[in-house]
Amino acid sequence: MKNRIFAGVPSEDAAGYAKAVIDGTTIHVSGTTGRDPVSGTFPEDAGQQARNCLASIDAALRQAGASLSNAVVCRVYVVDQASAAEVTPVLGEVFRDVRPTNTLLICQIPASGAKVEIEITASTAS
Description:
There is one protein chain. Helices cover about 30% and strands about 30% of the residues. It has about 130 residues and is an alpha+beta fold. The protein has one domain: CATH 3.30.1330.40. Strands 1-2-3-6-4-5 form a six-stranded mixed sheet, with helices on one face. The relative contact order is 0.23. The model has no long low-confidence stretch (mean pLDDT about 95).
């Protein structure tokens, strides 16, 4: 049986998705942008956006009984090479000891002001 976690944002209903889906010991967290959780705006710095993304993802994983330390796959989408250069050190800090697989792509993100979107798959299996 699959369990779902919702963040309560309007886009979940509009686009028909969940923040995370728990499928046995695997947790899939939807792509997450880096809005500031207080102001709702995107910081100018892509590195700070990445920190916001990861904090939001970690909160969803914790609802599922896991954390970023359970990450096995990390997919990162950035808008340009400069953003990639700002995001990469943040990923290195967070995942230094975890070492999930990683894909980083330069692409368009359909949220005005967003420079990074991160998607995580985690596992609670030993």
